[in-house]
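Exercise 7b. Backbone tokens:
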């Protein structure tokens, strides 16, 4: 079985794939100071609840946009699952070209999304990921990664609005019943929701105007991330939502690349 770890700025998602399906997904708040043993205490309990044992895990793959978290995630894989993890990097075999100025600067999550989306939906594509940042990534017909757009995430915008304006409360995100709010919370929810719908539609339109002649086809729009279904309700621009895009990218990357060699200098129970 494969343990896939997607470490984002807000949450770390752990998932186990048995070669046919995902057996479980669990998330924990991202904390770069969390030790490998702390991860293990939490994760092993969840694995047991799903009927899985540590020795069931034969491979581990990690994708992270938080470099400081990588050290303890690597130790988790080595010490508790006896696997040397494959870490998503630009130099690996992705099966496509990374056609940007500095491939090593592209976030692993964006490349993973491109890999999984092209495998499932073919191209050309725009992949929107509603995470800590909202990203738009362009995938060519042959699967090549062409670059993209990074905008502030919805929750960051809500928090910034609350912090910068003394009389504005912290609100939850939801689709408002009307565009014009009749109280402060409704007005804020409308601004955030419909403002992001406008951002989505505007950026997709500009990407299409700029790229469709070059890619010689219509760009399909795929959305992923926890808020993707919510925003798909508000616009016809988003054609498909897929919650497993990043995890599937990790699984596909592990299939394309050999497992790193695991070496042991001492067992955990050695004196």
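Sequence design result:
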């Amino acid at each position: 079985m494969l343990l896939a770890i997607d470490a984002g700025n807000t949450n770390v998602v752990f998932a186990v794939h048995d070669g046919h399906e995902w057996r479980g997904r669990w998330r924990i708040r991202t904390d770069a100071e969390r030790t490998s043993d702390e991860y293990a205490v939490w994760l092993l309990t969840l694995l047991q609840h799903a009927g899985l044992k540590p020795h069931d895990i034969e491979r581990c793959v990690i994708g992270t946009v938080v470099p400081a978290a990588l050290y303890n995630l690597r130790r988790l894989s080595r010490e508790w699952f006896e696997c040397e993890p494959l870490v998503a990097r630009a130099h690996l075999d992705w099966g496509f070209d990374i056609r940007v100025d500095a491939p090593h600067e592209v976030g692993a999550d964006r490349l993973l999304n491109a890999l999984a989306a092209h495998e499932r939906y073919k191209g050309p594509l725009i992949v929107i990921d509603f995470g800590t940042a909202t990203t738009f990534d362009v995938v060519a017909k042959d699967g090549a990664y062409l670059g993209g757009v990074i905008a502030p995430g919805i929750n960051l915008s809500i928090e910034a609005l609350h912090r910068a304006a003394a009389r504005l409360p912290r609100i939850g995100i939801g689709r408002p019943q009307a565009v014009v709010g009749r109280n402060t919370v409704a007005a804020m929810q409308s601004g955030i929701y419909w403002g992001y719908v406008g951002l989505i539609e505007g950026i997709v339109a500009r990407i299409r105007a700029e790229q469709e002649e070059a890619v010689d086809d219509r760009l399909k729009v795929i959305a992923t991330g926890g808020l993707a279904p919510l925003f798909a309700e508000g616009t016809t621009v988003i054609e498909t939502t897929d919650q497993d895009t990043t995890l599937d990218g990790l699984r596909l990357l592990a299939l394309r690349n050999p497992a790193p060699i695991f070496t042991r200098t001492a067992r955990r129970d050695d004196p």
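Instructor comment: The two ends are 30 Å apart (CA to CA). The first strand starts at residue 2 and ends at 7.
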